[in-house]
Amino acid sequence: MERFNQTIEELYREMIQIDSLQIPCRELRDQGMALFREKGIPHGKMEKWRHKAIDTLLVKPDQPFKPYLIQTEPSPYQPIDQVFKCEIKNIGTISYHLLNGWYIHQNKPLDIRDNGVIVGSINAAYQQFPELVSHYFNQLDPEKQDGLIALNQALFTDGIFIYVPDNVVVETPIQIVSLVDTLQKLMIQHHHLVIVGKNSQLSLVHCNDSVHEENSFINNILEINLEANAQLHYYKMENKDAQSILVNNTFVNQAADSRFTSNMITFNCGYVRNSLEVHLKEEGSDANLYGLYLVDRKQYIDNQVNVIHHVPHCTSNQIYKGIADDEAGANFSGHIYVAKDAQQTAAYQINRNIALTDEAKITTRPFLEIYADDVKCSHGATIGQLDENAMFYLRTRGICLRNARMLLMFAFANEIANLVLIEKLRERLNDMIKRRLSGELTICDQCMMNCADKENLIYDIDTTRLRS
Amino acid sequence: MSKEIIENITESDYKYGFVSDIEIEEFPKGLNEDIIRKISARKNEPDWLLEFRLKAYRKWTTMKEPDWAHLNYEKPNYQDIIYLAIPKKQKELKSLDEVDPELLDTFNKLGISLDEQKALAGVAVDAVIDSISVKTTFTETLEKHGIIFCSFGEAVQNHPELVRKYMGTVVPYGDNYFAALNSAVFSEGSFCYIPKGVRCPMELSTYFRINAANSGQFERTLLIADEGAYVSYMEGCTAPQRDENQLHAAVVEILAMDNAEVKYSTVQNWYPGDKEGKGGIYNFVTKRGLCKGKNSKISWTQVETGSSVTWKYPSCVLQGDNSIGEFYSVALTNHFQQADTGTKMIHIGKNTRSLIISKGISAGKSENSYRGLVRVTKNAENSRNFSQCDSLLMGDQCGAHTWPYIDCSNKSSVIEHEATTSKISEDQLFYCQQRGIDPESAVSLIVNGYAKEVLNKLPMEFAVEAQKLLAISLEGSVG
């Protein structure tokens, strides 16, 4: 670990010397570094990390340590589709790209649309709209941060900035694609910021993919601010290779009557930790948090969901489902916090898991912490197998074991996929789930999007008839 | 003056608060190896036991008091505690007549007169007052069946081989901070051995009671059910009120061999502190059962109404194939009480099953947490767990929390957990009041109904006491 910390110190010195960012980050870097020195990389003895320690992944005890690098300058522009073979337009989004830690553009760091919507690099956004950005940027409580958030503050490079002004409904979903394409051992620290104004609506698709990479470590922060009556649908897709470590820290602040819906979908990963913290700060706000993870081989997925009800009359709903195969591991830690006087709260949380092998390890921690009495809170967690009765039913209908299993698993995962509101994305997802469950979807597919061109998975039976 | 006020406030609520003036020969305060040697010498213990205590003490000095529980209390000063208090009069007692009349009076005030207990369905009471077992009844009947039921001290003298063989096998001396402390300084407790194939003809029961000021009690209980044996064991606690916090760090070990069944019930009513949150008992207990044999079963039932701070997780290690662990709990907190209680179910054997039913009730400004672990290991094929943890909130100043930990490393096991938190139903309250039941009785009725599932598991005498306790503990929490 010492070597790792040394690397961080070196990178920090390097970053403050050559800082080319427009955003005034010196103070932030110093703060972050001081906090990182104090807290360090989370280790397995910390309550929230005990099931899978990240320190032993960053510094593998049985291997010689190879320091991480940071790409200190943006890559020169290259048409992204040369690197990234993906027909993104098929799902009807407008996409923005990040490559190796930097926003990639063709002399247009900021896309300012006629209706006032701004999308682009957070650095450029700060240069043009310093007040707007600094009002929302890095509004995190240093008391509650762990070492990884501090690390991000100390070393961050770039991120996407999205601003939707009041009373604007963004029709076409916005897509963020974070790519890593390098043969170096890269460490990437993104800090994204999304602001949705009063009565506005936005759909955001956020993809993490890798092209070529060696043991990259990506540490993201995403801050989302929803003003009164705003709506955001957030879709997070993760399809990474087995070597990568990906940590996402998402913070959501919701004003009155705002509505936040998230779908965290993880198909392939090395180690992924999705930490989602939702603050329901004004009355009438509503959060719907869904997640699906299908992991196999030695992958590990960790979903940490924290919903904080600060005020009365808010609702939250969490549904996380997952299937673990081979030697994969999955953890779900859900935490519902209802503050004193947050009466009339309705909070619901469910986590369902299927373990397919004896080597797969599933842990779940559905926590409730409640300080108000007039509430309806419930949670449930299950770990089990496919329903034997359903399996028997299918077998009696002459469906072979393999297909019956596939059908049941598909039905299990389908519940989450069906909550995706972008129709084309939903179709893709269902298709991908089928491929994933039949073992056909691997990282060779590069991106979750390009599978649409291939032939659909053919079952021995006509699945369309099963619906009626 | 302030003492008077406090007395006035508390008198009506905690009817078991009094001090009996039995002469107590006191030990010096503090904890070090000398004290431990002294305790051991006083009890005339063999060397291996002293060694056990010293090992535990040395381990304890390297450990840190746990702070992961959802509790907020002033940590006790372990050097300011008297680690052994023994009533001076020590002589062999054969009948009730020889018992100190004052002691008998104490029991009468508690409503557990030995006579009554004798009459009531043949319950043998091993009454522990201030760490010394004063009276063991029904010994003859038990002896006929070959059952050993005596104080821990006697067991060490009379059955050292059994104690040595089993002590520390379920809760090792270094298991946790409080277990290590207990292993170093444990004073008294109960020992019970049910031989092969014996079904204990009566319900065994021990009443514990803290008496001397500032003397933390360190009970140690060891229960062994040999092959095919059955025993139902009851433990009840009431403590007189004290202004200073008292520490109670007990260890209970249960072993169930092949086809054995142990039922452990406890109604716990330590002094919870007054309405201002002053005083009260710290209850830091390690209770664990090991289902060592095939088809064995251990069942914990607890009703927790007392203690200012409770840190207690009666657990089952399901090692034998087809073994069963059960945990039924009602935890009620009022005023400034804090409880962090729950269970651990560790599935190791094949086809093991566990059931957890936990009902939490919080009122006043109290904090009530359920904390539980269900772990299914790789070899525990076809294991099954079901957990249900409900919390009831009364008033907007209290907190109810659920912290379940579920780990599964096995594909053939099924684990289910569900929990709800809500307040007392307005409809039910309205219905009761409409029928002319006053609000306080109505709440008591609803709470009893809510906890019925667990209370039903208690032996009859305990169930009655538990229902009354729930009602008393909730007094003043309505409106």
Structural description of this entry:
The complex is a heterodimer of chains A (468) and B (479). With 468 residues, chain A is an alpha/beta fold. Chain A folds into two domains: 2-282, no CATH class; 389-468, no CATH class. Chain A contains ten helices and 20 strands. In chain A, β3 and β4 form a beta hairpin. The model of chain A is unreliable at 85-89 and 442-460 (pLDDT under 50). Chain B is an alpha/beta fold and 479 residues long. Chain B has one domain. Helix content of chain B is 25%, strand content 33%. Chain B has helices at 2-11, 33-42, 47-61, 101-110, 114-119, 139-144, 152-158, 160-166, 177-185, 426-434, 439-455, 460-473, and strands at residues 24-26, 85-87, 124-129, 132-136, 148-151, 190-194, 204-208, 220-225, 230-238, 246-248, 251-256, 261-269, 281-291, 297-304, 309-312, 315-318, 324-333, 338-341, 344-347, 353-362, 367-376, 384-393, 399-408, 414-423. In chain B, the strands form three sheets. In chain B, strands 4-3-7-9-12-14-17-20-22-24 form a ten-stranded mixed β-sheet. Chain B has a six-stranded parallel beta barrel with strand order 13-15-18-21-19-16. In chain B, β3 and β4 (132-136) form a beta hairpin. Chain B is globular and about 65 Å long. Chain B starts with a helix and ends in a 6-residue tail after the last helix. Classes of the chains: A alpha/beta (468), B alpha/beta (479). Chains A and B meet through β19 and β20 of A and β23 and β24 of B.
Q: What is this structure's SSE topology?
A:
The complex is a heterodimer of chains A (468) and B (479).
Chain A (H helix, E strand, L loop, with lengths): L1 H16 L8 H14 L15 H4 L21 H4 L10 E6 L2 E3 L5 E3 L5 E4 H7 L1 H7 L10 H9 L4 E5 L9 E8 L5 E10 L4 E12 L4 E10 L4 E9 L5 E10 L4 E10 L2 E10 L5 E10 L4 E10 L5 E10 L4 E10 L6 E11 L5 E10 L4 E10 L3 H9 L4 H17 L5 H15 L31
Parallel strand pairs in A: 1-6, 5-7, 6-8, 7-9, 8-10, 9-11, 10-12, 11-13, 12-14, 13-15, 14-16, 15-17, 16-18, 17-19, 18-20
Antiparallel strand pairs in A: 1-2, 3-4, 4-5
Chain B lengths: L1 H10 L12 E3 L6 H10 L4 H15 L23 E3 L13 H10 L3 H6 L4 E6 L2 E5 L2 H6 L3 E4 H7 L1 H7 L10 H9 L4 E5 L9 E5 L11 E6 L4 E9 L7 E3 L2 E6 L4 E9 L11 E11 L5 E8 L4 E4 L2 E4 L5 E10 L4 E4 L2 E4 L5 E10 L4 E10 L7 E10 L5 E10 L5 E10 L2 H9 L4 H17 L4 H14 L6
Parallel strand pairs in B: 3-7, 6-8, 7-9, 8-11, 9-12, 10-13, 11-13, 12-14, 13-15, 13-16, 14-17, 15-18, 16-19, 17-20, 18-21, 19-21, 20-22, 21-23, 22-24
Antiparallel strand pairs in B: 1-2, 3-4, 5-6
Helix pairs in contact in B: 2-3, 3-9, 7-8, 10-11, 11-12
